[in-house]
Design goal:
- This protein is mostly helical and 153 residues long.
- The chain has helices spanning 2-7, 13-22, 25-41, 48-57, 63-76, 84-94, 100-115, 121-134, 138-152.
- α2 (13-22) packs antiparallel against α3.
- It is globular, with a radius of gyration of 15 Å.
- The protein starts with a helix and ends with a helix.
Length: 153
């Protein structure tokens, strides 16, 4: 319902941010998930203050807040190339998280950033390769490998 309201512009990014910023973790995660779902189709639904909020949310205590934030960042990274250094730093920490879903979501977001082929890739590609070497889950390594292949091709 929230995703539909966002997509139909019955609920603005500013209103979303106001609610999500003040919410406790379970509600915050649900609100971020709604934005994640909406930005799969329309990345422009997220504005810059919302992106900044998501980057900050990558360091939340609640795993679900971290993983929903990472997925939304992955959906919208192309809109905020000037904000990606900070996002990468936070995603790098989540790539080493004990939670598989947090690591998977960080891989998705980092992979989407790699695919943008920005100058940032000079530092990001070696970082992703190091993360891949340490990652125990093949499914997560495949996300990184696919992004590297797409960026190289």
């Amino acid at each position: 319902m929230i995703s539909r309201m966002l997509s139909e512009k019955k609920f603005s990014a500013g209103e979303w941010l106001e609610l999500a910023s003040a919410a406790k973790d379970p509600v915050k995660a649900t609100l971020i998930e709604a934005m994640e779902f909406s930005t799969k189709e329309v990345p422009a639904l997220l504005d810059e203050p919302g992106f900044d909020f998501l980057v900050r949310s990558l360091s939340a205590k609640a795993p679900r807040v971290k993983w929903e934030s990472a997925k939304t960042i992955g959906n919208t990274a192309q809109r905020f190339p000037h904000k990606l250094d900070e996002a990468v730093e936070a995603l790098k920490k989540n790539a080493a998280d004990e939670g598989t879903v947090v690591r998977w979501s960080a891989a998705f977001a980092l992979g989407e950033i790699v695919k943008l082929n920005l100058p940032l890739n000079k530092q990001l590609v070696p970082l992703v390769k190091k993360i891949m070497e340490k990652e125990e889950k093949n499914s997560i390594r495949k996300i990184y490998a696919a992004a590297l292949k797409k960026a190289a091709g």
